[in-house]
Design brief:
Layout lengths: L2 H17 L5 H12 L3 H9 L1 H25 L10 H4 L2 H7 L2 H5 L4 H23 L2 H5 L3 H16 L1
Helix pairs in contact: 1-2, 1-3, 2-8, 4-6, 4-8, 4-10, 8-10
């Protein structure tokens, strides 16, 4: 099997696993785009670190939902003609936000800023999972990662 075939196989497998996760659609899109640019070696690392990578994606999704929740407290306008809710929120996020999610899901500048921050944080930290050895992944500090995500996102809503 050639390098390209092996990379495609691994990419397809990882994309399928990511598609099954309950995370916002924009995060799934970011993952797909990210995986396109990895060779088979890095994809293999990501595959072996997938449990931690999944935990990381869930952290990002939860933080995005929290940020939007904070934003909802500040917004007064509503727009009930929302399409593509899955792109902006995971199923968990939609349940947590309820009807309020519809108020801000279409093009609010602040939601776009939150999404851009989450995407930037994703790219910044995702390289850890493709370059990290098994030993390095065992000592990864998710508390530090969580605090970083919270700190970076704080400035968006405030």
């Amino acid at each position: 099997m050639t390098e390209l075939q092996q990379a495609k196989e691994l990419r397809d497998e990882l994309n399928e696993k990511i598609r099954r996760l309950d995370i916002a659609g924009f995060l799934k899109s970011e993952c797909e785009y990210f995986l396109k640019h990895l060779n088979s070696y890095k994809l293999e690392n990501l595959k072996s670190n997938f449990t931690l990578f999944k935990k990381y994606l869930m952290l990002l999704d939860n933080q995005q939902t929290r940020q939007v929740k904070l934003l909802l407290a500040k917004l007064e306008k509503t727009n009930n003609n929302v399409k593509n809710m899955d792109f902006f929120f995971s199923k968990r996020g939609q349940r947590a936000l309820g009807e309020k999610a519809k108020a801000i899901a279409t093009g609010t500048v602040m939601v776009q800023k939150i999404m851009q921050k989450i995407k930037a944080i994703f790219l910044f930290q995702a390289t850890e999972f493709v370059n990290g050895s098994q030993l390095r992944m065992k000592v990864i500090d998710f508390k530090r990662i969580h605090d970083l995500i919270v700190r970076k996102c704080k400035t968006v809503v405030e």
